Amino acid sequence: MKRNGKVGNVRLMQRLNRARVFDCIRRSGQTTRPAISAETGLSLSSITNIVSYLLEKEFVCESDVDHGGHLGRKATLLKINEDKYSIACITLDSRKRVRGVCMDLCGGVRFETEVRTSLKTEEDTKNAVARVIGKIIEENGRGNLVAAAISVPGMVLDGGRETVSASMRWTGLDLRTPLSEKFAIPVFVQNASIARAMWTLKELRGQTEEMERNSVFIDLEQGIGAVQFMDASVNPFFLGEIGHTTSDINGKKCTCGNRGCLELYCSAENVISEYETASGKPLSFEGIVEASRSGDKEAVSVLGDCGKYLGAVFASVIHLIGPSKIYINGAQLLESDIIFDTAKEYAVSHCYKQLVKDIEYVKVSALDSAELEGLLEYCLDRLFDYESRHCIIE
After folding, report:
1. pLDDT tens for residues 72-122?
2. 240 in helix, strand or coil?
3. Rounded Cα gap, residues 166 and 160, in angstroms
4. Domains and CATH numbers, the chain
5. Model's pTM, two decimal places?
6. How far apart (Å, rounded) are the C-alpha atoms in residues 342 and 225?
7. Strand pairing of 187-191 and 214-219?
């Protein structure tokens, strides 16, 4: 038994080290064996053996030689192999659009398709996603497709086996089980805000300054989501469905069945509706922002109100987790300086001073392509996590 246990431990350590080396190459873009040894603390002989395995499995490839100024033999550069494997990345949104992109391990797009359907039932949704994956397999070939990753506008529970969304009328949608059985590949399901947050994390890792230990990503696309970053990783235990926090117990009826949810008031749709009620003039959100810059009192007022509700979002996350930095994604709402400035002022006046005195607010632009890239990042984290049952490193 001891011998078997020892063998098991050796294999586990081997798998761990292979995953560490792959991750080092993945996050570096391209690097050398000596650089990997220096970063991981593994001996150069161990790195050589691990890289030989990764080359044999075609997870990585040799790209060039390091032309740095050092003397001696030039080290060969290693990078992720773009040609061998692919992943089906699929996004679902409240506009009833199912978009599928076949991506290589570096994020390159091989094939793209889209299905527009009513998605009236959970079965409709499963069938639409299955059609998209089927198209990707038909175009790209089954052999090299190692997984599918799906982002959804809703809470993802029970390891991806249950999705709940008021706007989509999902009460317990399971995409993972039937699709993984149908196509015989791992299927990962993740919240769309977390996918966009994963992209933001990837972008931040490329910056020279260190990321704050405790920060939060607030997503204003398709509702309001909040994602906590802890030590440059997503905190998986923070659900972040802050958009359905009640701001007015007698307020407007929300799709979730409750009244007065924050996302009803902190939205472009509400700004448009409130402006038309106040002024009697129909205007687009962009038109209202432009009118506010010309001194239109109704425009300034409704944008300010929206900003107060966004400030309530800021105040909620500040009191919950005390972040030192808040990243905000929301291209449309953030077009208005009135909304953004009012939100920050509201947070200052409604939070303990000790919690807000050093907070930094950073605007980010995580759009459609960002969601796909973040989804790929999430999928790769699962596929090359040595503790995951879906890890493809032996």
Report:
1. 456 789 999 988 899 999 999 877 789 999 999 999 999 999 888 777 789
2. coil
3. 17
4. 2-80 (1.10.10.10), 86-185 (3.30.420.40), 207-366 (3.30.420.40)
5. 0.89
6. 20
7. unpaired
